[in-house]
Write a structure and sequence with these properties.
Order of helices and strands: HHHHHH
Number of helices: 6
CATH architecture: Orthogonal Bundle
Shape: elongated
Distance between the termini: 24 Å
Structural class: mainly alpha
Radius of gyration: 18 Å
CATH topology: 434 Repressor (Amino-terminal Domain)
Strand content: under 5%
Helix content: 55-70%
Oligomer: single chain
CATH superfamily: lambda repressor-like DNA-binding domains
CATH class: Mainly Alpha
Length: 114
């Protein structure tokens, strides 16, 4: 972890993570609702299937680069923060996967002897 000037990385407040990570689809879904845009019409305009868009908006599918750029073009919502949010979501979900974390521990033990 990098140390910022005046920020102690050991302080709990500097290491808090949300209990439930936010999927970027939630943000996009709220944006569509606020603007009164239907998922079906947006999917049609973007040339993607409704089911793909719906799965992203409901957090059942990851937001990929292409879809993030399409959202940027269609809604004017910057793709980079959405992709960063997806990355953070994926990291938090991986860290909550106990079997995967155990696998990482085993890999670290083996790698320590190299």
């Amino acid at each position: 972890m990098t140390t910022l000037e005046g920020v102690d990385p050991k302080m709990i407040a500097n290491n808090l993570r949300s209990y439930q990570p936010t999927h970027p689809g939630e943000v996009l879904k709220d944006e569509l609702e606020y603007r009164g845009i239907s998922q079906r019409s947006l999917a049609r305009e973007m040339g993607i299937s409704y089911s793909v868009l719906n799965e992203v908006l409901n957090g059942k599918r990851a937001l990929n680069i292409e879809l993030a750029l399409m959202m940027e073009a269609a809604l004017g919502v910057d793709a980079a923060p959405l992709l960063a949010m997806q990355n953070e979501y994926d990291m938090q979900m991986a860290e909550r996967n106990e079997s995967f974390m155990e696998k990482l521990k085993q890999i670290r033990r083996v790698a320590a002897v190299f």
